[in-house]
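Recall that a protein's primary structure is simply its ordered list of amino acids. Everything else, from secondary elements to tertiary packing, is in principle encoded there. The following example makes that idea concrete.
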Amino acid sequence: MDQLLKDIYAGVIDGQSALVQEKVKDALASGLNPGVILKEGMIAAMREVGRRFEEGEFYVPEMLIAARAMQSGLALLKPHLQESDVKSAGKVVIGTVKGDLHDIGKNLVAMMLEGAGFEIYDLGTDVTPQKFIETARSVDADIIAMSALLTTTMTNMKVTIDALADAGLRSSLKVMVGGAPITDQYAAQIGADGYAVDASRAVSVAKSLLSH
């Protein structure tokens, strides 16, 4: 592996944003393929971050810092990725459901998915079913990812899923849900396609939903 790629990989895992930006600039200047920088430098690093999180070696703060470092490098890489026509892993519209203003978990999932090569359309918090529908239509989304932290707002996940069905979109996209009060059973009960217990597993759930 090229030394610059190794530096980017290590920089992301260590959460060193400035170093990642510097090395991404160097890698682009040296003519390295943007797709290779993304896959071998950043996506590989975020995969390792996810593994460490699942093994209990990393916790949420380390994961957040690594994801931010990855994003800082990705911001520099994006224009070059569009030029070199790197295929995205899928389009994800993500948001916290109506009535809920919590976004730390949702932000982390968005960053981890972006680090795995997905295109992210983040609608923020307190998102109405109509907003999910409009955005999904306009970007031709593959996945809608919904988060809730309150037991009082988790019912809005079902409201949104029903609204997607009424809008005729339910068969053309997958719905994944997550958040503290959500369980596998609840996800199945409301008709979601997938449930992720944490941000690291959200990536494998999203990939598996699109591989069928």
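The first strand starts at residue 91 and ends at 96. The chain is about 60% helix and 10% strand.
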